[in-house]
Every structure is written in structure tokens, then in C-alpha cells.
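Methods — Computational structure assignment.
A single polypeptide chain was analysed. Its primary sequence is given first, followed by the predicted tertiary structure written as C-alpha cells.
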Amino acid sequence: MRSRTFKRLLRNKWATAGLVVMVLYVLVAVFAPWLAPHDPTQGSLRARLRPPAWLEGGSAQNPLGTDQLGRDTLSQVIYGARSSLRVGLGVVLISGLVGGGLGLLAGYVRGTTDDFLSRLADWTLAFPFLILAIMLMGMLGPGITNLTLVLSLAGWPHFFRLIRGEAIVESQKAYVEAARAMGRRALPIMFSEIARNVFHTFMVLATIRLGIAILSEASLSYLGFGVPPRVPAWGTMISSGQHYVDSAWWLSAVPGAAILVLVLAVNLFGEGLRDALDPRLQH
């Protein structure tokens, strides 16, 4: 079953391209110390605002130019992939486990537990995300760990609502009734039987939420409430480069392109994964 799903996924050229790009980004983030030509936090004012190598005044020493402090743009972009992927994957992991686990519980148990958790998820979704995130980051302070926790707090209701709906449907099927008749306890039924049958839905949502988490991290870093300024991040690069758009367009364009390509790749892969796992599209 899994091999057939994987083959269907690979037959989708756009999904395969998205997967390849995602893997490349991960490899770049993992091997950043070896790939970056310079220290991303160190610069030279004598080399400030140097254009990319293919423009007049550029240098092969800084292929994508330098910023207003003389720091190498390519090195900052490479290390910025670390920040975005750490936050994005951390958010998906935490919000997915919390929201998915609570969704399984609410969808299977129902009753008062379901009512309470559903209201809690609705209240969280009703609060404007950006205001909530800025308020919490202002209280906790900038940092990758704090940013991951704040974005997870805003993201768990999405997993909860989807998995809860799937769990309600699955809990009424014959295999669950048979497990109950055999005397199996609620937790084993939820986390071995039902969870296995809603896993494909979870994975599709996780892929979609990954792209949203990366954009959210960049947005908050752009506003100064995300990754600390000393840590290379794409949103911070765009924010600091916006004052030099006329004279040094690459400061914002390069990290912006990095975000665009990664999020597009994640979305393409997510759509391909959804099609590969959808039983209505299987032949």
C-alpha cells in the first residue's frame, strides 16, 4: 500500500520537484557551516553594499553581494534556512501531536470532553493570530524556542478540528465496534486503530501547515518579534534590506526568493501527497 502511494506520488512531476527542492533546503540547512563561504554574522564596512558578482562592482568572493554591514548575503541566506526549517518543523511537530492527540480524544470520547476541547479550539481560532503572536512574543522575548511555542499555540486547533472530524467518522465503523466487543481499552483503539486510519489526513495537513509556519516565522521576524537579530533569518534580512531597495535590491530580493521557492515547493508536495493518498483518485 505504501509503495503504491509512493509510486503515485513520484508520477506527479510537480510533487516530485517540490520534494526534491525541500530535500535540498534541508541539506543546505544541515550542512550550512560547510556550505556558507563566510561567517554570516561577521562583516566588513569596506565591503558594505557590494552588489552580486554578475553586476558591475561585484566580486566572486560574495556571489550574492553584501548587506549594509558588509556581511555576505549568500551565507546569511544559507543559515537563514536553518531558522525557518527549525521553527517550521518544530511547529508542525508540536501542534500536530497536541492538536492531533486531542482531536482523537475528543472525536472518540465525545460528550463533555469534546465540548470543552472544541470550545477551547474555537476561542483560540477566534483570537486574531498576529495580535496574539505579537503579544506573546513581546512577553516572552525573541527566540527560536519561544517563536516555535507561540506558533504551535496558534496552530494546534487546525489539527484538532480536522482529526476530530475524522475520528468521529472512524469511531462509528465496524472495526472499532469489533475492537470494543473484544474488550480493548479506549486508548489502544484511539492510538493504534483510529490513528492509523487518519494518518494520511494528518500528513497532508502537516505539509500545508509547514508552509504556513515558515511564512509566519518570516512575518514575525520581519516585524522584529521573531528570531533574534543576531541570528540569520530571512524575515529579518527582508526587514533590514527594505531601506536599501533602490540601491541594493538584492538585500530583500534574495531572502524573499528563498521563502517563495521553499513555500511553493512545500505546497506542490502537499498537493501531490493529497492526490496520492486520496482513495477516490486511486486506480
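Note: The mean pLDDT is 88.
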